[in-house]
Amino acid sequence: MSKETEPLNETVNLTCLACGQVNRAPKGKLVAGPKCAKCSASLAGGDVAALDMRLHDKATATDGVPLIIDYWAPWCGPCRTMAPEFAKAAVALRGTARFAKIDTEQFPQVSQRLNIRGIPLLILYAGGREVSRLTGARPASDIAGFVRQNL
Ligand SMILES: [Zn+2]
Fold this sequence. Notes:
28% helix; two-stranded antiparallel sheet; binds zinc ion; Glutaredoxin; alpha/beta
């Protein structure tokens, strides 16, 4: 939700969640679907990007657009249950926040560093820092509400 007082040409940093290139995109036009200058991937397409450690660290530290990350693992039943709900929320909040996920089995160091004790866990980042956490499997409406109330 952009405020009327914000100039439309204000730009934000957006890490391409496919290749890691940092792009500058006009803040008021994220729904228009800016593309990465390097690899042409959509920067705000409303999908859930699968991250590795490099992309995770870069995007959480760099992005000007709120980023919510699902910390999950393939063996976790509730994680698999929540995945389609998380994808629904990603579409609902397209242009407001970006959605991504990281496999904590494949990248266990992320759990250690962030002191993650249980999954699924959602962490919302904004302005290069952690804003809030939401634990447990949630429906899409809860996930969207969690993002909105923390922005
Ligand atoms: Zn790219």
